Amino acid sequence: MPSASSRHPSRDTRVLVTVNALPLAVGVLLSCSAALGEISAYGRLTLGMAWALAQLAVLVAGTWWYENRVASSFEPASGTTAAARSAGGAW
User: Fold this and answer.
1) Which of 7, 12, 58, 69 is the most exposed place for a label (fewest CB within 10 A)?
2) How far apart are the two ends of the chain, measured CA to CA in Å?
3) C-alpha 91: how far from its chain's center?
4) Distance, CA of 50 to CA of 37 (rounded, Å)
5) In the chain, what is the greatest distance between 2 CA atoms, to the nearest angstrom?
6) SS3 content of the chain, % helix, strand, coil (to 5)
7) SS3 assignment, position 43
8) pTM of the model
9) Which has the higher per-residue pLDDT, 6 or 45?
10) Backbone angles phi, psi at 41, to 5 degrees
11) What is the pLDDT of residues 74-85, one digit of tens each?
12) Do the strands 45-46 and 40-42 form a parallel or antiparallel pair, or are they unpaired?
């Protein structure tokens, strides 16, 4: 029986795109104003650099989540089980 994730793969894709689009949109807005990006967040770390690092972290975490979600939704094909191989069903 297919899992809920495999029945609705576009939902996972929509979640991934939305989670990554929101920080991108904020990053674009920050890049429109140099004064906002130059605000010191911590020491020499500016708000623009902090946001870029946060956006990178969201991208990496979202991609990891998506890959795990997609990989767990796949089930082996009917001819690839151990019983089918021993019976000569697949090479």
Assistant:
1) 7
2) 24
3) 34
4) 9
5) 70
6) 75, 5, 20
7) coil
8) 0.61
9) 45
10) -95, -45
11) 766 555 566 655
12) antiparallel
